[in-house]
Amino acid sequence: MSFIKINIQAEVNASKQKAWEVYTSPEHIIKWNFASEDWCCPKATNDLTVGGKYFARMEAKDGSWGFDFEAIYNEITLENTFTYTMPDNRKIEVLFEEIDSQNTLVSIAFDAENENPIDMQEMGWQSILNQYKTYLESLG
After folding, report:
1. Residue 123 sits in which domain range?
2. CA–CA separation, 90 vs 116, rounded Å?
3. Number of independent structural domains in the chain
4. pTM score, whole prediction
5. What CATH number is associated with residue 71?
6. Residues with Cβ < 8 Å from 109, sequence gap 6 or more?
7. Is 94 within 8 Å of 23 (Cβ atoms)?
């Protein structure tokens, strides 16, 4: 099965090391991993090793809906890039590129699923990445 690849990115005001840490550490993931303020991420775990599992629970704050996001790591280059695969075989690549000592470009390429419109998926993933940027930059 082939998937359509969607690309999103955000320039963050943080060092590459800090951007990586906040993106991959469960204690931070639960603070930013949701598309809007009426959602939350009450639990996240991350075994950042090849073959390790990433897990995040995302749900509406009112309890009306939620889902588990899971993936298994394929490749990892610490503080630079990683790829992982979801249970339905869709792949995601995340890349951290240093712009300068205090700015990093975070790029995500992911395989679209077949249930929702492409633009809706792109907007949802970009909203989560924007939440990450806002949270990361609030840390100073």
Report:
1. 5-138
2. 14
3. 1
4. 0.95
5. 3.30.530.20
6. 5, 6, 7, 92, 93, 95
7. yes
CB 51 within 8 A of CB 44: no
Residue bearing tokens 């909203």? 127
Tokens (6 digits) for 98? 């240093």
Phi, psi of 46 (to 5 degrees): -150, 110
pLDDT score for 2: 80
Q: What is the DSSP string of the chain?
A: ----EEEEEEEESS-HHHHHHHHH-HHHHHHH-SSSTTEEEEEEEE--STT-EEEEEEEETTSS-EEEEEEEEEEEETTTEEEEE-TTS-EEEEEEEEEETTEEEEEEEEEPPSSS-HHHHHHHHHHHHHHHHHHHHHT-
Span 51-70, pLDDT tens digits: 999 999 999 999 999 999 99
Bridge partners of 45, per DSSP, are 55
pLDDT higher than 80, residue 1: no
